[in-house]
């Protein structure tokens, strides 16, 4: 969204991803995770940089999928972490819920609802999930992975699935339109 709007990236979460539980841990204690050291980690089958932020015995894993090196990823993370304005937060959580049971979806919604920032949306598939901050996107019937929202509708299109949502109004008003 920031890229499309030609805005400076004020979030360290640009060009990376978290597992959902790690995301909720991160957003739940933003002060700690934005100021803590990111330590390099490795996982079988992943050929891009991975970082971890430890808190005692537990940790949050950050997958820097669009970075060529761990050092570059952490440099950008720290630079952008310093720009976060918690008094003007917008939280966007993509939750495809492709194979999740209704119970798992309800638990994910409960975790999302517990985020204490007002300006937030959960982008998800058509389901029983509902609420003021839930945005249903039908494309999840075709695209079966997280990150699909940024895919182009077809090889000849300049439109992505994200363009079906009026995120500009969300960012301007803080409420879904």
Short description:
The chain has 177 residues and is α/β, with parallel strands linked by helices.
Give a structural overview.
This protein is of the alpha/beta class and 177 residues long. It has two domains: 20-84, no CATH class; 90-173, no CATH class. The protein has five helices and six strands; from the N terminus they run H-H-E-E-E-H-E-H-E-E-H. The chain has a three-stranded antiparallel sheet. It has a three-stranded parallel sheet with strand order 4-5-6, covered by helices on one side. Strand 4, helix 4 (102-113) and strand 5 form a beta-alpha-beta unit. The radius of gyration is 16 Å and the shape is globular. The model has no long low-confidence stretch (mean pLDDT 84).
Secondary structure elements and their pairing?
Layout: H1 20-28, H2 30-35, E1 39-41, E2 50-55, E3 58-63, H3 70-81, E4 91-95, H4 102-113, E5 120-124, E6 134-136, H5 167-173
Parallel strand pairs: 4-5, 5-6
Antiparallel strand pairs: 1-2, 2-3
Largest sheet: 3 strands, antiparallel
Number of domains: 2
- Strand order in the sheet with the most strands: 1-2-3
| Shape, principal axes of CA atoms | globular
- The helix-strand sequence is HHEEEHEHEEH
- Provide mean pLDDT, rounded: 84
Number of helices: 5
- Proportion of helical residues: 25-40%
- The total strand number stands at 6
Terminal-residue CA separation = 16 Å
Main traits of this protein?
alpha/beta, 16% strand, 177 residues, three-stranded parallel beta sheet, 2 domains, 6 strands, single chain, globular, 5 helices
